[in-house]
Amino acid sequence: MRLLFTNYQLISGTGTEQVIRDLAVSFQVRQHQVAIYCPRLGKMAEQIRSQGIKIVSRLEAMPWKPKIIHGHHHVETLEALQAFPEARALFVCHDAQVWHDFPPRHPRLMAYVAVDLNCLERMKSAGISDVRIIGNWVDPQRFLRRKSLPSKPRRALIFSNYAKAGGAIEEIQAACREAGIDCSVVGEGVGNHVEKPEEILGDFDLVFARAKCALEAMATGAAVVLFHPLGCGPMITTRNMASCLPWNFGMRLITEPVLRGNIRRRMDLYDSKNALAVADWVRQKADMDKAMEAYQKFYDELLAHPLPLEMSGHLDQEGEFPPENSPAVEMPPGPSKKLEPQVMQAVSIHVRQKSIQARTGENFPVLVEIVNDSSETLSSEQPFPVNVSYHWLDAPGQALVFDGQRTQLAKPLAPGCRTEIWVVMTAPELEGSYRLRMTCVQEKVLWFDELPTPVFAEMEIAVRPRQNRSGIFRILRQKAAAFRAAPQRPPMPIIVGSPRSGTTILRFMLDAHPELAIPPETNFLCQAADLSRSGLDLRLDMFDLVTQHAEEAPSWPDFELSKEAYWNAIKNVEPFDKTTGFREFYRLYARANHKSRCGDKTPLYALHIPAIKELLPEARFVHIIRDGRDVALSFRKFWCSPGESMEIQAKFWSDTVTTCRTQGLKCGHYLEVHYEQLITDPLSTLRRICDFIELRFDPQMMSYVENTPKRLKELGPRILKDGIVVPMEDQQLRLQQLTTSPPDISRIHVWRQEMTPEETMCFEAIAGETLRAFGYELAT
């Protein structure tokens, strides 16, 4: 039999790459003619070739025609089917989320396989009902079972390519230290990739891993706790092994964040005899030879099945004929990039249903057409995926639900092409007439309906109550009425502005109020759009975002809060959404500082006011503005400055303050305060701010310097992935040293003494109009 396997890449030894290697080697040993088609080759390809396996990156390089195509990944499978019109194919889905595992359609794609129940759900949601499950496997000849384990674990291993320094690793290592266990880490994320894990797993008594890595560790006899940087699952024992196997020991079993206490509770379940019993069971149930026999039987069935009738023309990637004169679909060369506004505006969206029936709180599909008349490919690939989403609006056009569920594009949409996609959405919980706005969003960049020329499609929808649920509906109405009658939340001040404009001194002044706590910079609110999942997954994602942001150097230690306390605050609160998750953080911070209210001071939230206002309706934005020339002198040598040149500084300051004013005036809860005014007349300025945020003025705010040393101790260093520390703790303190003294009017208009005439002219040439707009005189 001539077999061709396809895969997205053969570079770093990911799960499907290891599966392809096992399949190719096993069927070559069984005397089949074997080859692999993969357009992205690297070290893993070299490793497989060393075992005598033929690998091609171009299908025209194939020396023979396959009888069976064993397809992994959407595009590569369809390319192989188009290249070999006499081959039959099966498709195996290994991932329930990434776009390149979306099941393709084709007349000669005659069978589908899911590796677990999670992937089975994806296949069925794509309309494929006849799906077999062939799970992951372990090679018992490679992963040998040890004879015994110690009564107490001595050595532990974090075994994951996704594990990175910061947060999860440190929590596990701390738990292991408390228990007297040495803990090591292997994986690509920490720069310690292991090509032959079978050579090291036998040295560890306790392993933190998931999916195929977990299977391999279990097969050696190690006790295994399911782990991913986003969370942890149970320790696998004889009680739960049978129920966990159909889920491939994967993400659906990740139920709690990686916290020291959670890890210790799982470690306490360690039982050497039980771990060895799990090993025996796994080696029998997930034996590689059994999986190969299942695939051999599958191939034989396909060969016995007649080929469908010949079809003229070429099929597109969905298995349908493209319209006449439609351009060829080409894959993007790499990860998706940020799109320019003019590119986004060349996209159009159309709803392809004349009428839609929706019932309160229930999911329903909408057929949407996306037309890409731009010059760029639209893709749901990272790091800036383009997804389809929606808003629910009331009759006047106010957003009731802004951040709808995301639906990924099944494949990249090339310039000049169009595609139809079923978008699943959730109806509002109360009946009534609504406007549904369908649009796209490039995550971390922009919603398409916020462009100068907005891109969206709208339709009126009458949402009716759920059938046979009048009691629930009545309760919902009562809750809604109670919510409307309840007192409004007190305003939450958020201090914004260009960095080095006085945001820190204003933070310390407001934080000195006996009722108000202002934490160090949070930065995580502008990442709320990344939280697209629901239920327990949303809680885990929220916990990870708040405690691990930013990825390069998390700021969580500055808040001096316990991770366990935050998880306990969000794990049981109902109903739960993104707003609730963030409010619980601020409530926890205020309570830890013995205050009743909380605010925020993150300067560059100045660029995200609409999204934050939607997320936290109680937010009130205090924009502190300082002469841009003084800002440039202070900011250009700062560690996170955009650059030292006056051109860069002028553009950055002008763009920031202008965007903040434009967005703030639209949101309606916006106050401008000048740094110069705050320094020369702090009393009246603080009174004005207190009136704006509905907080009684307290004289303690004028004595803020008494609390500044304590607050400055919160600011720790930022440690990047490569170990570089920026800024150092003493650098942080030097940058904020002026806040330890009363306001110093000598820091006003410093540019007149320290800025050269050439620098002044350069700055004003770029930002002169902005200076005038904010009330500053020009020197030139």
Task: Draw up the topology in text.
Layout: E1 2-6, H1 15-29, E2 33-37, H2 43-49, E3 54-56, E4 68-72, H3 74-83, E5 88-93, E6 109-114, H4 117-125, E7 132-133, E8 155-159, H5 168-178, E9 182-186, E10 206-209, H6 211-219, E11 223-228, E12 231-235, H7 241-244, H8 260-267, H9 272-285, H10 288-304, H11 341-344, E13 347-351, E14 358-359, E15 363-372, E16 386-393, E17 399-401, E18 407-408, E19 417-426, E20 432-442, E21 446-447, E22 457-464, H12 470-485, E23 492-496, H13 503-511, E24 516-517, H14 535-548, H15 556-559, H16 563-571, H17 578-592, E25 597-598, E26 600-601, H18 609-615, E27 619-625, H19 628-635, H20 646-667, E28 670-674, H21 675-680, H22 682-692, H23 708-712, H24 729-735, H25 751-754, H26 757-773
Parallel strand pairs: 1-2, 1-4, 2-3, 4-5, 5-6, 6-7, 8-9, 8-10, 10-11, 14-22, 23-26, 23-27, 24-25, 27-28
Antiparallel strand pairs: 11-12, 13-15, 15-19, 16-17, 16-18, 16-20, 20-21, 20-22
Helix pairs in contact: 5-8, 14-16, 14-17, 16-17, 19-20, 20-26
What does this structure look like?
- There is one protein chain.
- With 780 residues, this protein is of the alpha/beta class.
- 34% of the residues lie in helices and 18% in strands.
- The protein is built from 26 helices and 28 strands.
- The strands form six sheets. It has a seven-stranded parallel sheet with strand order 3-2-1-4-5-6-7, sandwiched between helices. Strands 14, 16, 17, 18, 20, 21 and 22 form a seven-stranded mixed sheet that branches. The protein has a five-stranded mixed sheet with strand order 9-8-10-11-12, with helices on both faces.
- Strand 1, helix 1 (15-29) and strand 2 form a beta-alpha-beta unit.
- Helix 5 crosses helix 8, helix 14 crosses helix 17 (578-592) and helix 20 (646-667) runs parallel beside helix 26.
- The relative contact order is 0.07.
